[in-house]
Amino acid sequence: MRRCTRCGPMRAISASIRANTRSRWGRTRNLRLATFGQLEHLRFDERFDLIVCADMLHYVRGAELRRGLSGIVDQLEGLAFIEVYTARDKLVGDLDGFHRRTPRWYRQTFAEAGLLSVGSMGWVGPRQAPWVTAMEAAAD
Question: What value, to the nearest 5°, has the Cα angle with vertex 131 and ends 125 and 133?
Fold first, then answer.
């Protein structure tokens, strides 16, 4: 991840960064290796305006997912884009290790972690929730 000219430093954390990518680009692009569950304990100097978690939570076991979400909520100072697929989605591709959870399971688990839905795969934490407008909030 490169530094944007109009934004602050960027950081990428991944459990799937290949060894050659990490050794070649790790320092210059601020890539770090961690499991999702390790986010429970990882903390940084500043909170994040944007957290992107794409196409991977449906491969993470429930207990690890809950642990990692607590770290995301603690470090979130803006929007979390959390792309997740459920048992109700028609999927093609790599389904090895895919956990077939219901949309309700994810909504409940995210809510228990302190996340509030604000649209298509967008979530905010408790510090941002008071500022969410009626049209941003997902229907109850």
Answer: 110
Identity at 6, one-letter amino acid code: R
DSSP conformation class of 137:
S
Q: How far apart are CA 9 and CA 2, in angstroms?
A: 8
CA pair distance 10, 2, nearest whole angstrom: 7
* pTM exceeds 0.90 for this model: no
Check residue 43 and give its pLDDT: 87
DSSP-derived secondary structure for 18-50? -HHHHHHHTTTTTEEE--SGGGGT---SS-EEE
For helices 103-113 and 62-75, angle between their N-to-C axes, nearest 10 degrees? 40
Place of tokens 């100097």: 45
77 or 24, greater pLDDT: 77
Q: Please determine, for residue 81, whether its predicted confidence score (pLDDT) is greater than 50.
A: yes
Do 13 and 44 form a contact (C-beta atoms < 8 A)?
no
